[in-house]
Amino acid sequence: MSNPALQYVNSRIHPEKLKQFCIEALQAAGLSSDHAEQTADVLVTTDAWGTFSHGSRQLVPLLNNLRKGGLKADAQPEIVDQGSGFVVVDGHFAMPMVTSRLAMQAAIDKARSAGIAYAAVRRSGHYGAAGYYAVMAAEQDMIGLSMTNVDVCMTVPGARAPVIGTNPLAYAVPAGTERTVFLDIATSVVAISKVIAAKTAGKPIPEGWLVDELGRPTTDTSTYPDKGAILPMAGHKGYGVALLIEILAGVLTGASFLSGIKPWLVPDPQPADEGHAFVAVNIESLIPIDTFKARMDAMIGEVRSAPKAEGSDRIYLPGEMEWERFDLAHKNGIQLPDYVLINLFSVAEQTGLTDRLIAMLEEE
Ligand SMILES: NC(=O)c1ccc[n+]([C@@H]2O[C@H](COP(=O)([O-])OP(=O)(O)OC[C@H]3O[C@@H](n4cnc5c(N)ncnc54)[C@H](O)[C@@H]3O)[C@@H](O)[C@H]2O)c1
After folding, report:
1. Which residue has its alpha carbon closest to ligand 1 atom 35?
2. Half-sphere exposure of 96 (CA within 13 A, CB side)
3. Ligand 1 centroid from CA 13, angstroms
4. Is 68 exposed, middle or buried (0-12, 13-18, 19+ CB in 10 A)?
5. Site residues for ligand 1, CB cut-off 6 Å
6. CATH placement of domain 191-230
7. Measured in angstroms, how far is the CA atom of residue 355 from the centroid of ligand 1?
8. Which atom of ligand 1 is nearest to the CA of 46?
């Protein structure tokens, strides 16, 4: 029999309702209402951007981590050291979204007087979409950078096995009449979820995504992820950027790095000890904010009006597709993909919220 969640594939749910469901599920898993609200905001903003791989579907592994001790429902992140332009945050394995919001806000607050500030986070876990935290800075008229290290799953030139994580990087920059420009990417050639999706569908993948257990290029996903590894984006360039993130988020913060990070997507996770790095640049310290925003608008206009390639009628700025999806989500509700619905129904079953979820999906 097909999964009951699938009858809702054409339903829409307003982001506020989806957020309420996430809050209730997280509270049922032991989180305070404040931590549940903060976590839900990160997950549902990510869904509204259309980045479903890192939105509310991650409630399933997050709840498993809360149950098995990978995350601690009652822990509070703590600033353990600081200077004029930096803070060090010990996450105490609290919900990583809560820790990351606290750390980015601390960097923003420091940057107001210091001009630029860095927040180092250790003893944390999977923080979701990097872009959320970078956008926090842009919404407060700063340039934001957000990075995390991740358990190893990506190979590097010359190696045959996974050496480093798919360490994501995001930046966000406010503009004037234009929307915030933000790029939010893994440093792997594609997200691992795309390889798994192709494998599940029995489809081959393009060359350049994977190597086999001997480090040879392969399009065969049959033994992945037990054997083989994903490749960095743009070869040595992606590897080099992933390594910078490993240094800023792992080596410098005191968090674990490379093989020291525990995997979080396993049945019995231990505290992962991922590290995060956040940077906030106070634009007003360098240039009047209105001048900067007008210059951003001019830059965006020049990019957008460049001659189009044959077959193309539009050039997008990083983040533009996400903002269009975000606006539509808030206007018409979010149409959740089947794999997200299946995950949400599984969470609802675990937390006694199935009737609540169905009612929310049927109300729209
Ligand atoms: N926390 C973790 O452990 C972890 C690890 C890896 C990835 N992630 C997250 O996974 C998500 C997806 O990463 P990904 O690498 O698959 O992203 P992706 O390859 O889908 O790229 C998305 C980014 O590229 C921009 N973009 C896409 N097409 C564009 C175009 N034509 N012109 C201009 N900009 C364009 C988008 O605006 C967006 O910023 C991110 O949110 C990332 O933070 C998280």
Report:
1. 318
2. 34
3. 23
4. middle
5. 51, 53-54, 126-131, 148, 150, 166, 168, 170, 182-186, 191, 316, 318-319, 321-322
6. 3.30.60
7. 34
8. 41
- 319 Cα to the center of ligand 1, angstroms: 9
Indicate if the alpha-carbon torsion angle 261, 264, 267, 268 is positive or negative: positive
**Alpha-carbon span 116 to 40, nearest angstrom:** 29
pLDDT of residue 200: 82
Residue length, the chain?
364
Which SS3 state, helix, strand or coil, does residue 186 take? Answer: coil
Best residue for ligand 1 mutational test, from 46, 57, 182, 185 (most atoms within 8 Å of Cβ): 185
pTM across the whole model: 0.97
What one-character DSSP code corresponds to residue 334?
A: B
- Structure tokens belonging to residue 49: 């951007």
Task: Tell me which residue has its CA closest to atom 26 in ligand 1.
Answer: 318
pLDDT at 1: 54
Q: Domain spans of the chain?
A: 4-70+325-363, 191-230
CATH of domain 4-70+325-363: 1.10.1530.10
List, for residues 251-303, the tens digit of each pLDDT value.
999 999 999 999 999 999 999 999 999 999 999 999 999 999 999 999 999 99
The answer to whether residue 32 scores a pLDDT higher than 70 is yes
